[in-house]
Design brief:
Elements: H1 2-35, H2 52-81, H3 95-121, H4 124-130, H5 132-135, H6 150-166, H7 171-188, H8 211-220, H9 231-235, H10 243-252, H11 258-270, E1 285-290, E2 297-306, E3 309-317, E4 345-353, E5 356-364, E6 369-379, E7 382-389, E8 395-403, E9 414-419, E10 426-435, E11 438-446, E12 474-482, E13 485-493, E14 498-508, E15 511-518, E16 521-529, H12 533-536
Antiparallel strand pairs: 1-2, 1-8, 2-3, 3-4, 4-5, 5-6, 6-7, 7-8, 9-10, 9-16, 10-11, 11-12, 12-13, 13-14, 14-15, 15-16
Bound molecules: zinc ion (ZN) (2 copies).
């Protein structure tokens, strides 16, 4: 009799368990990981998406979990039939108030059960046999919701019979609980932070866990064990010390607009569209191209002489983190089609003509177009590159490229490491450039510790710079030369958003002093010149 029962009843239980997982995780995956992937890219907590093989693994383990859940479900079915559970059908038996209160009771009880069994599963001797499978996802997707080893599945499932045997529950409450459980579980593994800004610091809301909360558990293992609520982690001092900071960092990221990232690639490559020349002055060497609007460096171009003409390739592109790491030229034609932009030969055929190099071609890897171009040196360190476009080459655009590494003759121009006063650690790399006789400085790189996040923005800045990315930001403005010093400029501290009047001077060619004034007080920092193979080049 029981065998017949099993095949009559179990498939139904299996399908309910399967679709409960598949529909919830699948919808989350479809909405966030497929359709809205680019739209919400800035809210993706970790830097990169996991490889597909991890998603497949998560799904496969989840299938084994669904089977085990449905088997346990069948046992529960038998217990219900035999009258062993405390499930009741008549609302009137315990009243409406009890009906309403019993739902939060199930949620609070499950949270308690989860926290402590989770701590148990993290014990060294238990972990590797039971919980390691779930932690193979260090960057989980919605499919990880049920990605458990069978032992863990049994532990996770047991909470349900425990409640059914001890607490009187109406089928409505049981259904609600099962839905709540899977929805919160999938949200915990969503990867995108969907909770609103300020959530973790709100007196009332902060008790609910966010996506970042469980994501940190997957990334760092020994903190944030909680499921629905943050209180057990707070009481047991297992809340991650970077939790609020991480949440704020994710929520303060500016939205990535496609147009913006496209535009900057276009510019970087169009920059690739300029020129030089000269008598005794060589255009060979490495050159930095700049974003004309912001002045921040965009790419490094290397120019070499081949026979009587010159050729140039892209040797480095400074992309924003969200533009990916290694762009390819999808719009190019011929042998350049789908080739990597870095190392691509994009400038060729320039012939010397007096003080200019003319009749050359420059490819814009963004749109695959080739422009006729010429270039010339304005001085030994400055190259002008002009690209022609439109009908009969009526339109042109001229860019300025700066030679890398030759401005080291007692000028602050060049790249500098800023040093943390307290820890004597390199904090960032700043490039100082000269424009119309004044010095400006941009942050090229920041060296962060892992817990400090990946791509910080200036939260404390005001005006246009509010929430702008710190990398690429102009922090030194309008320093004018007076004798040995550069003065009357201002310096922005992206840490607190404050702007100070400042002056800078060289102690020797490799050491720069930067002094910021606040009323009668001042503070001086020492910056060290960046020594790298590229900066040595034009010597
Ligand atoms: Zn998890
Ligand atoms: Zn864990």
């Amino acid at each position: 009799m029981e065998a017949r029962n099993f095949f009559d009843v179990w498939p139904g239980i299996f399908l309910v368990d399967f679709f409960r997982y598949f529909i919830t995780a699948g919808l989350a995956f479809l909405i966030f990981w497929v359709i809205g992937k680019n739209h919400w890219r800035h809210l993706f907590i970790q830097k990169v998406f996991p490889q597909n093989k991890h998603l497949v693994r998560e799904f496969a383990y989840s299938m084994s979990t669904v089977i085990i859940f449905s088997l346990i479900g069948f046992c529960i079915y038998l217990s219900v039939k035999a009258g062993y559970t405390r499930i009741y059908d008549d609302v009137a038996e315990f009243g409406l108030f009890y009906l309403f209160i019993s739902f939060p009771v199930t949620v609070i009880f499950h949270d308690f059960y989860f926290y402590w069994t989770h701590r148990f599963m993290h014990l060294k001797r238990v972990y590797k046999y039971v919980h390691r499978v779930h932690h193979e996802s260090t960057n989980p997707s919605p499919w990880a919701a049920y990605a458990f080893h069978p032992w863990e599945t049994v532990i996770q499932a047991l909470v349900f019979p425990i409640m059914l045997f001890s607490i009187p529950l109406h089928p409505i409450v049981i259904t609600l609980f099962l839905l709540y459980m899977i929805v919160r579980n999938v949200i915990g593994h969503l990867g995108f932070e969907i909770f609103p800004q300020g959530w973790t610091k709100n007196k009332w809301l902060s008790w609910t866990t966010t996506v970042t909360h469980h994501n940190i558990h997957h990334e760092r293992f020994h903190t944030n064990y909680g499921l629905y609520f943050t209180w057990w982690d707070r009481w047991m001092k297992t809340e991650d010390s970077t939790y609020h900071q991480k949440f704020d960092e994710v929520k303060s990221r500016p939205k990535i607009s496609r147009e913006r990232s496209k535009a900057s690639v276009t510019i970087s490559v169009f920059l690739i569209t300029t020129a030089f020349i000269s008598n005794a002055q060589s255009v060979e060497g490495k050159w930095t191209t700049y974003n004309e609007e912001t002045g921040s460096p965009l790419s490094v171009i290397e120019i070499v002489k081949v026979d009587n003409s010159i050729e140039g390739k892209v040797s480095e592109i400074f992309l924003e983190p969200f533009q990916g790491d290694d762009p390819i030229c999808s719009k190019c034609s011929g042998q350049r089609k789908d080739q990597k932009v870095v190392n691509m030969n994009f400038l060729w055929g320039f012939k010397k003509d007096g003080s200019e190099w003319t009749n050359g071609s420059i490819l814009d890897p963004q749109n695959g177009e080739v422009y006729s171009s010429k270039l010339w040196l304005e001085d030994i360190n400055t190259m002008k590159v002009r690209g022609y476009g439109g009908m009969m080459d009526l339109f042109y655009r001229t860019q300025t490229w700066k030679r890398i590494g030759t401005s080291e003759n007692n000028s602050p121009v060049g790249r500098w490491h800023t040093i943390d006063d307290t820890w004597n650690k390199v904090k960032s790399e700043v490039e100082i450039i000269e424009r119309n006789g004044e010095l400006f400085g941009y942050i090229r790189k920041i060296f962060l510790l892992p817990h400090e996040g990946k791509d910080p923005v200036c939260i404390a800045c005001e005006g246009k710079l509010k929430n702008a990315k710190i990398v690429g930001m102009t922090i030194l403005n309008k320093f004018k030369q007076k004798g040995d010093k550069w003065e009357d400029g201002d310096i922005l501290d992206p840490g607190n958003g404050k702007v100070y009047t400042a002056s800078i001077w060289l102690v020797d060619n490799d050491e720069l002093r930067v002094r910021g004034y606040l009323g009668p007080f001042y503070r001086t920092q020492t910056w060290k010149r960046v020594k790298s193979s590229t900066t040595q080049l034009g010597k």
